[in-house]
Write a structure and sequence with these properties.
The protein is an all-alpha fold. The chain contains eleven helices and no strands. Helix 6 packs across helix 11, helix 7 packs across helix 8 and helix 10 packs antiparallel against helix 11. Keywords: Cell membrane, Membrane, Transmembrane, Transmembrane helix.
């Protein structure tokens, strides 16, 4: 019991020191915001998490892993504050897991001698969970973009046929199609904001396509670059790309249906076949057992 109390006091002291360091960092950020004339920032918890992520250890936890940076780009978290927020989550999760495991071990299994191994496993698990969650969100966002492209291309064709240029058509879609294409229009707004700051539209489209890594969006950006450079002659390419995307979608649906039918056949074999055998072969087995019994 004394060991548990000492451990809790050590954890409380460490939390106090971390809180003091974070408050100092927050004071520095508030001073810089007031000097730069910025408005009031986010809430206290959000600000505290960002302050933890802005520490050297938090920044190294993200920068030392290239896969994490790629996943953050695919999710759309490209600003420094968003990366700091994820870094704080990645740093705090292993510590929280290890603390919960330590408390559970001391309260429920005080005589067990595998505390170090269990805490090490908790640290590893807590470090991997944020990254796996980020990978799941990135994959889901890529799928959403892939689905939205099939609606994005016909809208582009309509705007091009009405006489709009590439940049003008993209601006109209980024403003008018927010509810229809929420993910894709968000990326377009980021691209157009960079174009307004003086960058080239073609380069920003290529950069965004490489960051998102969606085949359908990559093909669409190639055609848009052709329109920007040549000024026309890509309408047939858009039509052919739309037909190709429809064929891919139909093939994916057929594959999904075939897999689902295979799974349903397994379920039928497991649950329906024994009942069918009992109904059909049950009377014969009963008759045979009675014959042998008599």
């Amino acid at each position: 019991m004394a060991f548990v109390i000492c451990a809790l006091l050590i954890v409380a002291a460490a939390a106090l020191l971390i809180n003091i360091a974070v408050r100092d960092r927050l004071r520095q950020q508030r001073v810089m915001q007031r000097l730069e004339g910025e408005k009031t920032g986010p809430g206290k918890f959000d600000t505290w998490m960002r302050a933890v992520g802005n520490t050297k250890f938090g920044q190294r936890s993200v920068s030392m892993d290239s896969e994490t940076e790629v996943l953050l780009n695919r999710v759309g978290w490209r600003t420094a504050n968003q990366r700091a927020l994820f870094a704080a989550f990645q740093v705090a999760t292993p510590v929280a897991f290890a603390g919960l495991v330590f408390l559970g071990h001391e309260l429920f299994f005080p005589r067990s001698g595998n505390l170090l191994v269990v805490m090490l496993c908790a640290l590893v698990l807590g470090y991997l969970i944020p990254k796996r969650m980020l990978a799941y969100v990135a994959k889901k966002r890529q799928q959403e973009i892939s689905v939205e492209i099939s609606t994005f291309i016909p809208l582009l064709r309509i705007l091009f046929e009405s006489g709009m240029a590439v940049e003008q058509a993209l601006r109209v879609l980024s403003l008018e199609a927010r509810q229809l294409l929420p993910v894709l229009t968000g990326e377009l707004r980021v691209v157009l904001a960079r174009v307004d700051s003086g960058l080239e539209l073609g380069q920003e489209l290529s950069k965004t396509a490489s960051l998102l890594d969606v085949d359908e969006f990559n093909d669409t950006c190639v055609i848009l670059l052709q329109l920007i450079q040549q000024g026309g002659g890509a309408m047939k390419s858009l039509q052919a790309l739309k037909a190709l995307l429809d064929d891919r979608r139909a093939a994916r649906l057929e594959e999904y249906i075939s897999k689902m039918s295979a799974k349903m056949s397994v379920v039928m074999m497991v649950f329906l076949f024994p009942a069918l055998m009992m109904v059909l072969a049950g009377p014969s087995f009963i008759a045979i057992s009675r014959a042998f019994g008599s």
